[in-house]
Write a structure and sequence with these properties.
The protein is of the alpha/beta class. It has helices at 9-22, 29-37, 69-79, 96-105, 123-135, 174-178, and strands at residues 58-61, 64-66, 86-90, 115-120, 142-146, 159-164, 180-191, 197-205, 208-217. The protein has six helices and nine strands, in the order H-H-E-E-H-E-H-E-H-E-E-H-E-E-E. Strand 4, helix 5 and strand 5 (142-146) form a beta-alpha-beta unit. The chain binds S-adenosyl-L-homocysteine.
């Protein structure tokens, strides 16, 4: 057996994916492929690179974190991302989750590529994410916007899928509901600011929203007009 210390990044990534499959978290082939392809170590600070393939959140500066890989995997599976989808992500952070989404909705050589729009409120993180996405070849498939994501991004609405990676108050921001396409899916953690949050999947059917609670979670707060106060 190869010692984990001697494994290269690709081997560590494969090992992580295998363990997420064994735990029943990763089941869909598209999500498995994306997790195998996107180099998570390129999205974390240099001093955290060696921990990039441990199933744990990591600090990315400015008090923010990149989610644990099992959370990325779970959210991608529930969103049912398909080639051609137009996706809106609120909370770019490192840019890793946006790259995973892009790998699924706009795979290389796709004849019907979708696109990922992702919004981040911290300018420093916007710059880092743009750099990482460029380095890893996702810059044409992901647009990073600096702003308050609780307002959504009306310019490109409606979206097939909306992913929120910071915890919203229990009242889900209205713009996110209105900017979701008919039949679209919104994946969002919501609840209180620092504890007692749940992950929800919300499907838009006509003027109705069907909400399903998935599990208890812990995310950094969504700060903004329709979010928490800073
Ligand atoms: N998806 C990210 C996880 C980032 S953590 C990744 O893959 O790394 C959540 C991010 O949401 C933080 O960077 C935080 O600054 C950002 N955030 C919080 N409120 C926001 C808002 N209203 N608009 C945009 N970004 C917000």
């Amino acid at each position: 057996m190869v010692s984990i210390l001697k494994m290269n990044f690709e081997e560590k990534r494969k090992r992580l994916v295998e363990s997420l499959k064994d735990r029943g978290i990763l089941t869909e082939q598209d999500v498995i492929n994306a997790m195998l392809v996107v180099p998570r170590h390129k999205f974390v600070p240099l001093d955290a690179e060696s921990s990039a393939y441990i199933d744990s959140p990591l600090s990315i500066g400015l008090g923010q974190t990149i989610s644990a890989p099992h959370m990325n995997a779970m959210m991608c599976e529930y969103l049912k991302l398909r080639e051609g989808d137009k996706v809106l992500e609120i909370g770019t952070g490192s840019g890793y989750h946006a790259a995973l989404c892009a790998e699924m909705v706009a795979p290389k050589k796709s004849e019907n590529p979708g696109h990922v729009y992702t919004i981040e409120r911290h300018e420093g993180l916007v710059e880092n994410a743009r750099r990482s996405l460029k380095e890893t070849g996702y810059e044409d498939r992901v647009t990073v916007i600096h702003g308050d994501g609780t307002l959504g991004y009306p310019k490109e609405a409606p979206y097939d899928k909306i992913l929120v990676t910071a915890a919203s108050p229990s009242k889900i921001p209205i713009p996110l509901r209105t900017q979701l396409k008919e039949g679209g899916i919104l994946c969002i953690p919501a609840g209180s600011k620092n504890f007692g949050q749940n992950l929800y999947i919300i499907k838009k059917k006509g003027n109705d929203f069907k909400t399903k609670r998935i599990t208890g979670v812990r995310f950094v707060p969504l700060i903004g007009k329709y979010g928490f106060e800073s």
